[in-house]
Amino acid sequence: MKNYKLFIRSMKVMGNRMILYLGAIFVMSVTFSMFSIMSSLLMKSVVDIAQVGDYQKLAVTIAVIVVIGVVSLLIYRVATIRYNVEAKRVYGVLSEAVLEAEMRLPYSYYEKHHSGEIISKISYDLTKMGDIYGSRLRRVVMPFIQVIAFLIPMFLLSWQLTLCLVATNAIMMGIEMLLLNPMHRVSTELSAINTKMTSRLSDLLQGMEQVRMYASGYKTIDEFKTQNHCYAKKSNKMILYIACLNSGGKGFELLCSLVFLVIGIYFVEKGYTTLGALTAIYTMYGAFSFQFLQMGKYIPELVGCLANAKNIFDFLDETREPQNWYTDLFVQEKHIKNNFSENMSCSDAFSYDGVHASTNTFAVDINSVTFSYDGENTVLEDFSLQIKSGECVAITGVSGCGKTTLSKLLLGLYPLDGGTIIINGLDIKKCHLTALRKQIAYVPQEPYLFNGSIEENIRMGRPSATEEEIIKAAKQANAHEFIIHLSEGYQTKVGERGNNLSGGQCQRIAIARAILKDSPIILMDEATSALDNESEQFVNDALKNLQGKKTIIMIAHRPSTIQLADRVCCMGEK
What we know:
The protein is an alpha/beta fold. The protein has helices spanning about 5-10, 20-50, 55-105, 105-110, 115-155, 160-175, 180-205, 210-215, 215-270, 275-315, 405-410, 435-440, 455-460, 465-475, 480-485, 505-515, 535-545, 560, and strands at about 365-370, 380-385, 390-395, 420-425, 425, 440-445, 520-525, 550-555, 565-570.
C-alpha cells in the first residue's frame, strides 16, 4: 500500500473527530507562530523608532504586541490540550480495534500463526502507529503551517531576501528527503525482527522445562540472541539516519545564518530593505529555518511509522470469523446478548434460539460429514453419528483419524465441506455460531486456567453465577474437597496456566467450569489422557455425577474412561 494511502486511512480511523484533531494542530501552529512573529515585529519597531526617537509610540507598540503575544499563548495552550485528548482517544480506538480483531479471527488463524506474532502487533506495531497521532504528524504539519505563517510577514518586509532564504533551505530539505526510503525500509525490517524476537521469547517462557532439559532449548535461546543482535544492528542504522538528519540540520542551520548575514548586509547597502526589516527577518528566520528543516527531518520518521501502520491494517483486514459460515447474514457482536434480543431481525432459515430450528429427536445428529483442512487431504469422509439426549458416548480411534477435528466441527470452528450437523435441533448451517456454542461446554485435553483465583476460573463458565452455584459445580466435578483444603480455598491463585495445581486438579476445575456453563452437552477431548491413575479416577467420578443429566461426548483412548460410556464409536472403522 502506498504511503499516501496509508496516511489517508490512518486519518480516517479518527472518524468525524479528525476535524477537531487537525484543527487543534492548525491553531497550535498559527498561535505559536504569532508569538514569534510578534517578537520579531517588536524588534523591528524598537530599531525603527529608536532611529527617530519617538518613545511614546514605542510604548504603545510594545503594549499591543505583548497583549497579542499573551493571547496567542493562551489559545495555543487550549489547542494543545484538545490535540492531546484526540491523540490519546484515537490510540484507544485502535487498541480496541486490534483487540476485537484478535478475538474474532477464525480459529485457523491461531493454528497457523505464532502467539508472539499477535503480541508483537500490540507491543510494537500498535505503539509505533500511535506515534503518528501522538507526535509524528504534528511535527510535520506544524512546521509546514508555521513556515507559511512566517513567510507572509517576511515577504512583506523583503521578498528578495526571503526568496534567497527559501531557496537555500529547500536545498537542505531535498538532501534530507533522500533518507525517506531507507528509513521506511529499516522500519519495516525492525518490525519483522521484533515479531520473530517476541515469538522466540514466548517459546522460551512457555517451554522453560524443555529449554533447560534439551539442547534444542538452548538453540532457541541462540536464535533469540541472533535476532536480538540483528535488531541492534538495524536500530543502529536507524539511529545513524536520525543522527544524519539532526547533525545535517544543525550544520546547515549555521551555514544558512552566515548566508543570511552576507545577503542581508548587501541588501541593506543597496537599499532593497531597511535595517529594521532586516532585524525582524533575522529574528523570524531562526524560527523559520528551524521549522523548515524540521519537515525534512520528521517526514522520514512519519513514513517509518506508516510502515508499522501497514502491519496493523493488514492485521485488521484479516478475515473475521463470521456469525455463520454458510450465510451472508452477519450481526454485530456488541448487539448480541446472552439470551439474544427478541426483536433481532433474522430470516426464518437462520435460527438464534432454536425456535425455528428443526425438531430432531437426537441431541447430536451428524450426517454424512466430509471435511478437509486444505481442500486436498480429506480428514473426515461421509461420517455419521447420532447421539440421544442424556447419552454418554465415547469416541475412539487411531491417531489422525479425525477425533479432534470432529470436536472442532461441533464447536463451529471450521465450516463443513459436506453433510450436516444438528445439535439440539439447531442446524449449524442455519444458526448463529454463538447460539451453537451455548449448547456445548468444552473441556480440552489441556484446559487453560487464567492467572487468577479458582473461583474466578470456575465463574468463567457463567459470570452471573452465585457463590453457591460455583460450589455446587465444584462438588459435581469432584473438586470441592481438594479446593477447601488449600490455604486460601476458592481464592487460591492458580498461577499462569494453572502451574500451582496438579494436572488432575486443573482438569477438575475445567470440568466445574463446564458444568457451571449449564449447557446441555459436554464435549471432552482426551480429558484424562495426560493424568495419572489417581487423578483419572477423580475425573471419572466427576463424569459419573453427570451421566444422565447431560449429553456427554468423550474423545478418549483410556479403557477406564471408555468403560463409563453408554456406547462407543470407533472412528476409522468401516
